[in-house]
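Hi, can you check this record?
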Amino acid sequence: MGTSTRRVTSLKFILLATSFATTSLIAAPGDDEFGQFQQSLQNDTKNGATSLQQEFSASLKEDERLLKLEEKEYEDYKKEIEKQWGEFRGSTKKEWVDYAHNNSSRSIVNFEKGDVTLEVIVPVDPKQQTVKKLSKAQRLTALNNLKKQLKKIINDKSIGGESPIRNQISLDNGKPLTHTNVDHVAKNLIDKKLTVSDAPFVAKDGNSRVKVAVKFKMVPNHLKIRADKFANPVKKYSHKYNVEPALVLAIIHTESFFNPKARSHIPAYGLMQLVPRSGGRDAYRHAFGKDKKPSSAYLYDPTKNIQLGAAYLDLLSNREFKKVNNKTSKMYLIVAAYNTGGGNVSRAIHGNTNIYKASSKINNMSPESLYRRLEQKLPHKETRDYIRKVRERKKIYESY
C-alpha cells in the first residue's frame, strides 16, 4: 500500500473518531445528512481494511510461490548432479558444498572439522575395473579443474563480500592462502596431495568415471576467525533486542559453526538456521511489523540472518516466557524453544503445551533444577544435547 493511500485511510479514521465524539454538538439525533456522512466514512474505512488485508494475503501468497519455486529448482539441481556423480552431496548446517565446471568438480568445506576437500570426476574407459594411475592428459585435466575449484571458493564473494574461508587455509610457510597468491601456489599445493579413487563408478547418465581428490586442513583458529567476522552485527542486534551477545554467538556456533552458507534438510538457512515459513516469518513480523516469509537469499545474508535470529530470541523471551522471572532460567527455556518450539518445552515442565501455566512452576524452581529437568524430560535427544552445547559454548564468548 502506497504512502498516499495510508494518509487517506488515516485521515478517515481521524474524521470518523471526531464525528462520533462531536455528534451531539453539530447535529440532532435525526439528522439524515450527518448519518449518511458517518455511514460513508464507515464504508470507506471497512473497504480500506479489506483492501489492506487482501494486499497482505497476496504478498504472502507470492512469498510462498517463490519459496516453492526455490525448492523445485533445488530438486532439479540435485538431479543434474546425480547424473554425473551418482549421488548428491549438498550444503548442510556444518558443510558448504559448491559445484563448478559443468558440475564435474566440487568443494566440500567442513566448518566443524576444519578441513576442505576438493573433488573432480574424470571419465575413464568403462572396461577398466581399477584405475591405479591416471594418464598424463587425465592428470592434467584433474589438476586444472581442482585448481579452478580452489580459486573459485577462495574468490567467492557471494555472501558478505568475502569468502567464507578467507584466511583459513595456510600454506607450508604459514602464510594464508588468498585470492592474491592462489594462482602461484595452487598447482603445486594440489599436486602434492592428490589422491585417486581406484574404483571407477557408473553414474546415472551411464558413463564411467573415477574420483580424484585433494584435502587441506584449515588453520587451528578457523572458528574464531569466523566468529570475529560476525561479532559486530551480533553485538548490534543483541543490544537492539536485549539478548546477550555471548548467547547469540553460542547459538550460531551450535547451529552452523559460523557457516553463512548453511542449509539444513528442512530447509533452514544461514548462520542461525531460520526456517522461512515458521521462525523466519515470526522473526520478520517481530522485527519489522510486517507478515513476510523471508527468502533463502535474504536468510543467507549474515547481517539479516543475525537480526532475525536475535529478534526471534527476543520474541521467545517476551511472548512464550514473559512470566518467567529468573534471567538464567529464561535463557535455558529460550535456547530449548529455539531448537524444538515452546510447546515441547512446556510439555517437559508440566505435561502439556500451555507455557503460561508452566511459568508458575518454573518460577518455583532454581535455574539448575530447571536445567536438569529439561535435560531429562525434553522429548528429543537433539534438544537435550543442544541446550548442553549452547550452555557450554556460551562461556567461550563471554569476552565478546
About this structure: The CA atoms of residues 27 and 34 lie 7 Å apart. The first strand starts at residue 95 and ends at 100.
